[in-house]
């Protein structure tokens, strides 16, 4: 007989590094099986006999669903749903739930951290100390790189949902003025400026919008050229929002004051990326870890638990399909 409360987590270490309390989630299931990683050809087999699949980035496609008629619920440990065939889930009567808003404090502080690093040229000064240049200085301090104060500067936000709003509040605490940009593909709003109006006015741009057919490469060579000389760009949303080659070129030619990204168009970048070249000045790249505080990951455990409990009680919570 099929176990109606058997769950399989296909890529468990993508969430838990051994530092989380999984006991709330375990209480939802009579059997929770954890896999470190699952290859595409292993998905259907590992889901055999399970009523619940848990996945972060492992793809669950129509074939895997068709091969597992006992599957009733797919829990995604992230907000994005592109790794699950939602049409196939609907056809098979499988409920799909995601997690939402779990990483807002973590990503917001990471965004501001990157902006502060660019403004203070932290990486350059750290390298200078490591290279022994401060030790050889003729005065008490080393001021080889221009430092920018955020107070009084203007920040442009592309995306002003929960995350963008959190970044705006932190920026305002530093004395920045915040302007909101109009996201392509969405209805115009009087409090949102078209990019052609926004970009020439701002000293820094941070991105917090989804990646879709309207926003892919929303920041390209033309948009970067429209920004003030010396402006900063920070992306903690999706890599495809920025034309990466255009960003590399804008940094090399000195138009931008600096850029930082926590995301790339293909992750992990096993085949390289234009932004990983060693000759790009004033660029910070972090490995898509803005969301990954222990607190944020524990919130995911809580939301997974809530989603499962709601499903088993016959109600709906964070259902995307």
UniProtKB/TrEMBL annotation:
User: Which parts of the sequence belong to the D-isomer specific 2-hydroxyacid dehydrogenase NAD-binding domain?
Assistant: 112-290
EC primary class: oxidoreductase
Q: Which CDD domains match?
A: 2-Hacid_dh_4 (cd12162)
Molecular function, one GO term: hydroxypyruvate reductase (NADH) activity
Q: Name one Pfam family in it.
A: 2-Hacid_dh
Q: What is its EC number?
A: 1.1.1.29
Q: Which UniProt keywords apply?
A: NAD, Oxidoreductase
Matches recorded under SUPFAM superfamilies: Formate/glycerate dehydrogenase catalytic domain-like, NAD(P)-binding Rossmann-fold domains
Domain (D-isomer specific 2-hydroxyacid dehydrogenase catalytic) ranges: 25-317
Indicate yes or no for the key word NAD: yes
**Family from the record:** Belongs to the D-isomer specific 2-hydroxyacid dehydrogenase family.
User: In its UniProt entry, what is this protein called?
Assistant: Glycerate dehydrogenase
